[in-house]
Write a structure and sequence with these properties.
Layout (H helix, E strand, L loop, with lengths): L15 H12 L4 E5 L9 E6 L2 E7 L5 E5 L17 H4 L3 E7 L2 E5 L7 H16 L20 H7 L6 H4 L13 E6 L2 E6 L4 E6 L3 E3 L1
Antiparallel strand pairs: 1-6, 2-3, 3-4, 4-5, 5-6, 7-8, 8-9, 9-10
């Protein structure tokens, strides 16, 4: 049987209307990494982030609870208005889903999204098995930002395949060759990669988060 492989139209990477639809249908319903938990470790602290085009605020309230809020004003800047009654519950910032994996903070625009710990459970188990590493004990040492002049789908796809690994990752995957066991396992919203010989594992969290 012959299979025909059809590439997606180039407009899917350049048309602004496609991006608008992606933000609603692809980004909004899923978890995204938004930053380190270090800046919001203490009550009263906060940090700003971007959630697939949606500006958000991550804050630690006075009770020590981590919260994510859509940073979009719903009351046109009113804090006090003499002679006008304001319903605080009606104008408060919408609350989003937020969760942590060790020092990593994730958020989702859908407050009813699947719990992050359940979604990442296969990968966290893989990390413990392959690297004997407790993710909760990791600490941030530095942050590096790369600005890529490419559509997000191109970048995500590049990180989901490892045909290039033996050729261009000689330092990060030393000795990796065609005879090594390279195992890819797919789950709902998660793909894990395992290379036993070099004790290396990583995951693709849909749609565009990579964990290694």
């Amino acid at each position: 049987m012959t299979r025909t492989v059809v590439a997606m139209p180039s407009s899917w990477c350049t048309d602004p209307d496609v991006l608008v639809r992606e933000r609603a249908a692809v980004f909004a319903p899923h978890w995204h990494y938004v930053g380190s938990a270090v800046p919001v470790a203490e009550p009263g602290t906060f940090m700003a982030a971007d959630l697939g085009g949606l500006p958000i605020v991550i804050t630690r309230d006075e009770d020590g609870v981590l919260r994510a809020l859509a940073n979009v004003c719903r009351h046109r800047g009113l804090h006090r208005a003499p002679g006008v009654e304001i319903d605080g519950d009606a104008v408060r910032l919408p609350e989003l889903a937020v969760a942590t994996v060790g020092q990593l903070v994730f958020a989702c625009a859908d407050p009813h999204v699947e719990p992050l710990d359940e979604l990442l459970a296969p990968f966290l188990a893989l990390v413990r098995d392959v690297s004997q590493m407790d993710v909760a004990r990791l600490e941030r040492r530095r942050s590096i930002v790369h600005v890529l002049d490419a559509n997000w789908k191109v970048v995500a796809e590049n990180f989901m395949e490892c045909y290039h690994c033996p050729l261009v990752h000689a330092d990060t995957l030393p000795g990796y060759g065609s005879d090594d066991d390279y195992v890819i396992t797919t789950y709902d919203g998660l793909v894990t990669h395992r290379l036993d010989r070099d004790r290396f594992s990583w995951a693709n969290l849909f749609p565009n988060t990579q964990l290694s």
